[in-house]
């Protein structure tokens, strides 16, 4: 009995042991990403292509092909080529390059497709929709808010596990908290962006929720992959977060969803105006 309280306290404090590293990483990462998104051009293109290459490397490493191997190097270069082709305006060619990655084998090809679709979607949303920077910021912010909200509320309130066989740390309270944060963030961003149309608030809420659900699905999918491969993190490049895949796994699902929705918006408008003609 006498040892139970300290043990419980230690376990509770352990839930927050990575908070400082996460905050410090975010303090560097968020301004850099926001600057690249807002500035656009080659700066944004380089960010996306670099992220695609880095995530492809982490995916290959999870299957035993590190950067020192020929196949690992090829995975990294292949993903970069997909992004570069899109930046050059060859969208069809980018899709063909991505499809041709089947020569790497089914497991590595799946990574090329998942990462390639997300990267191409982020490029498409920035350069082919209006307002490009605002659209990407809405998407990235809602994904980040969902992740941060889930982290904070899950550790504050705990409760039943969301998917204990896939990711024992995730809880229903965290999932709901992340959803709520994304909804509030979506409402705020959609209403404040230049040229906001009537209904921006409720549309921001609805599509903020959709982005959060997609992001959490991507998070669970990556967790399932890591569990199947027997790894804790996809990498170590981001202290407190792990690898690029660990940080941006939500975008692997959310970005393609947003790009598909944008096809239904009139005149290349933001994807949360889908259906308006």
From TrEMBL:
Q: Name one GO cellular component term.
A: plasma membrane
Q: Which Pfam families match?
A: CTP_transf_1
Bilayer topology reads: Multi-pass membrane protein
Q: Cross-referenced PROSITE patterns, in alphabetical order? A: CDS (PS01315)
* Catalyzed reactions per annotation: a 1,2-diacyl-sn-glycero-3-phosphate + CTP + H(+) = a CDP-1,2-diacyl-sn-glycerol + diphosphate
User: Ion transport: is it a keyword of this entry?
Assistant: no
> Which pathway is recorded for this entry?
Phospholipid metabolism; CDP-diacylglycerol biosynthesis; CDP-diacylglycerol from sn-glycerol 3-phosphate: step 3/3; Lipid metabolism
- Asked if the Swiss-Prot or TrEMBL record annotates the protein with the keyword Lipid biosynthesis, the reply is yes
Give TM regions.
21-40, 46-64, 76-101, 107-125, 132-152, 172-193, 200-218, 251-274
Name the EC number(s).
2.7.7.41
Any Gene Ontology biological process: CDP-diacylglycerol biosynthetic process
Q: Which UniProt keywords apply?
A: Cell membrane, Lipid biosynthesis, Lipid metabolism, Membrane, Nucleotidyltransferase, Phospholipid biosynthesis, Phospholipid metabolism, Transferase, Transmembrane, Transmembrane helix
Broad enzyme group: transferase
Task: Spell out the subcellular localization from the entry.
Answer: Cell membrane
Q: Name one GO molecular function term.
A: phosphatidate cytidylyltransferase activity
Family per UniProt? Answer: Belongs to the CDS family.
Protein name per its UniProtKB record? Phosphatidate cytidylyltransferase
Instruction: State the organism of origin.
Output: Komagataeibacter europaeus
Lineage, highest ranks first: Bacteria, Pseudomonadati, Pseudomonadota, Alphaproteobacteria, Acetobacterales
């Amino acid at each position: 009995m006498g040892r139970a309280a300290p043990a419980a306290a230690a376990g509770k404090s352990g839930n927050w042991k990575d908070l400082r590293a996460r905050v410090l990483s975010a303090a560097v990462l968020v301004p850099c990403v926001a600057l690249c998104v807002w500035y656009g051009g080659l700066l944004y293109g380089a960010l996306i292509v670099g992220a695609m290459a880095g995530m492809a490397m982490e995916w290959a490493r999870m299957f035993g092909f590190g950067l020192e191997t020929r196949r690992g190097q090829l995975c990294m270069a292949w993903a970069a080529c997909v992004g570069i082709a899109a930046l050059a305006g060859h969208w069809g060619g980018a899709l063909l390059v991505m499809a041709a990655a089947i020569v790497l084998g089914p497991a590595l090809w799946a990574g090329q497709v998942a990462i390639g679709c997300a990267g191409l979607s982020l490029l498409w949303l920035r350069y082919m929709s209006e307002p490009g920077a605002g659209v990407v910021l809405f998407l990235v912010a809602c994904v980040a808010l969902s992740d941060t909200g889930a982290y904070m509320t899950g550790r504050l309130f705990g409760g039943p596990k969301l998917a204990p066989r896939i990711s024992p740390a995730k809880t229903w309270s965290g999932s709901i908290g992340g959803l709520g944060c994304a909804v509030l963030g979506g409402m705020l961003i959609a209403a404040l962006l230049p040229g906001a149309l009537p209904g921006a608030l409720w549309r921001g809420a609805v599509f903020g929720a959709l982005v959060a659900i997609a992001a959490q699905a991507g998070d669970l999918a990556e967790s399932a992959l890591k569990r199947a491969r027997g790894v804790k993190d996809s990498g170590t490049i981001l202290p407190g977060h792990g690898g690029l895949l660990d940080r941006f796994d939500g975008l692997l699902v959310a970005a393609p969803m947003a790009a598909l929705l944008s096809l239904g918006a009139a005149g290349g408008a933001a994807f949360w105006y889908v259906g308006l003609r």
